[in-house]
Design a protein that fits this description.
The protein has 15 helices and 19 strands. By secondary structure, the protein is an alpha/beta fold.
């Protein structure tokens, strides 16, 4: 399918639209007049995004050639924004296989350009000395550049933006530790870049001339050490000056666990971030500005990028977060109501209470659960469970919420993810903690035949093997405390908020 660039926008495919950058790129492309198609393993996770009705969403996976071929049909520009963040075995092979499939199918489909966001690799460091994650990202970039399709690879170091993993790591380390003993990588020179500049480069790359097939370094106007970044963050955030003492004994593994202990970023994601800081990551060329369409504009400085990110955090306008992307290894099995579950073990804990409030008041409490609002029962038990999850490499309880009041399908919510939401009625969460089985928590606000508001809650668990069976029966004695207390406290909170609302009329 041929398009006249001068008359209409391009047709763009975005992979990784459920992730941090992809979820922000789609509305930018739409605003630039392009038509957007998203390839997603779970299309429902894009359903509640503000731009969902303006973009086409197709189901598929980058490791499945047939679904990639269908997604690329008629596409002008293909954005490849996926990579494995897992530290488990086999992620390099998965990255390699996915990139080879995407490159081949893009060539067959006649795609005009591939645009890929990669990591900035240190100059002069042999590839075998790089971390596995940086080595894999460099390999993926080579595969795409050798695809026969004109390709733009944008290589960035630390991305500063509300909700990015790099920003959250910087933010929590600086805010929570007025005095800190840090790994030696705090003295590594880094060239951070504002997320707005990353998005501008991604959008502008769509219209690069067909003879451009290369990688570009992208960065902000300043080169800083991580120590300087923490001190500058503290100044912008209005915090007292931080005392930072570096020691050489923390290995990348220990560093990632240290970051996981202090920040919401789990060790499995912190490790590739900290490993990338072992070597200097500074731009060696600034050619990208000559190749972008539209007015270039100066890149955003570090202090301004931090200020903009903090403003979005404080105003609860964080559109995507690092946790938007799926957690490697997290369950994504079908709902317990699917036919495939027939005959399988599925344990459940049901609670139902009458609530002296309107369904709307009850729903506000349900949708506001988690994060700073907590889980309405036995906070110590939830905190301990979260810590145990972190110790075994899980995400723990500190991912929080993207928005303090509203949820959408695909949002992370502490160690849960929103699997289904029917506004005003039903919220279903799927557990992403480390468990010997699959677990869901479902909460709903309904009106019974007498017109009274009722709160219904059920916890579901599908055990894996004998260990899963043992786990369920070992924790079931505590369900009355944890789940029973949750149901009572949610009902009480809804009634209390309704009583404080002078416009409230109890349901009868």
């Amino acid at each position: 399918m041929e398009h006249d660039d001068t008359r209409e926008g391009l047709r763009c495919l975005v992979t990784g639209a459920t992730g941090y950058i992809g979820g922000r790129l789609v509305p930018e492309l739409l605003s630039a007049g392009h038509r957007v198609r998203c390839l997603a393993r779970s299309p429902d996770r894009l359903r509640d995004h503000p731009w969902a009705d303006r973009a086409e969403v197709v189901a598929g996976d980058v490791t499945d050639a047939a679904s990639v071929a269908r997604a690329l049909a008629g596409v002008d520009v293909a954005y490849y924004l996926v990579h494995a963040m897992s530290s488990g075995k086999g992620f390099e092979e998965t990255d390699r296989r996915a990139a080879l499939i995407f490159a081949e199918q893009a060539r067959i489909a006649g795609v005009r350009r591939i645009v890929h966001l990669s990591g900035l690799t240190p100059a002069g460091v042999p590839e075998h000395e790089l971390s596995p994650h940086l080595r894999s990202r460099a390999e993926v970039a080579r595969i795409l550049l050798d695809s026969g399709v004109p390709t733009t690879v944008l290589r960035a170091a630390v991305v500063i933006g509300s909700g990015s993993a790099s920003f959250e790591m910087l933010r929590y380390l600086t805010e929570r530790l007025p005095v800190m003993i840090t790994p030696s990588w705090v003295h590594t020179r880094i060239q951070p870049v504002a997320v707005r500049d990353v998005l501008r480069a991604l959008v502008g790359s769509a219209r690069m001339p067909s003879d451009v097939n290369r990688a570009f370094d992208i960065g902000g106007p300043e080169v800083l050490t991580y120590r300087q970044m923490m001190l500058r963050y503290a100044a912008v955030a209005g915090l007292p000056r931080r005392i930072i003492l570096a020691v050489p004994v923390l290995t990348p593994g220990l560093s990632s666990h240290w970051v996981g202990l202090v920040t919401p970023v789990p060790a499995s994601i912190a490790r590739p971030l900290t490993e990338s800081l072992r070597h200097e990551v500074v731009c060696h060329e600034h050619d990208i500005a000559r190749h972008l369409s539209g007015p270039p504009g100066p890149p955003i400085g570090f202090d301004e990028a931090v200020r903009l990110a903090l403003q979005r955090v404080r105003e609860a306008r964080v559109t995507t977060r690092w946790s938007s992307a799926s957690v490697p290894g997290a369950p994504s099995d079908p709902l317990p109501t699917d036919p495939d579950w027939a005959g399988g073990s599925l344990y459940s804990d049901h609670r139902e209470l009458r609530v002296d409030a309107s369904p709307e008041a009850l729903w506000r409490v349900i949708e506001g659960i988690g994060g700073e609002n907590g889980w309405y029962s036995f906070p110590l038990a939830w905190a301990v469970r979260g810590r145990l999850d972190r110790l075994v490499g899980g995400v723990g309880l500190r991912r929080g919420r993207r928005d303090a009041a509203r949820l959408r399908v695909g949002d992370s919510l502490d160690f849960w993810r929103v699997e289904a939401i029917e506004p005003g009625r039903l919220l279903r969460l799927r557990a992403e903690m480390r468990l010997p089985g699959l677990a869901w928590l479902e909460m709903s606000a309904v009106t019974d035949e007498d017109g009274r508001t009722r709160y219904r809650q059920r916890a579901l668990f599908h055990p894996h093997g004998l260990l899963g069976q043992a786990y369920w029966w070992s924790v079931s004695p505590f369900h009355a405390i944890v789940f029973g207390g949750m149901a009572r406290n949610i009902a009480r909170a809804a009634a209390g908020s309704a009583a404080r609302d002078p416009q409230h009329t109890p349901a009868h």
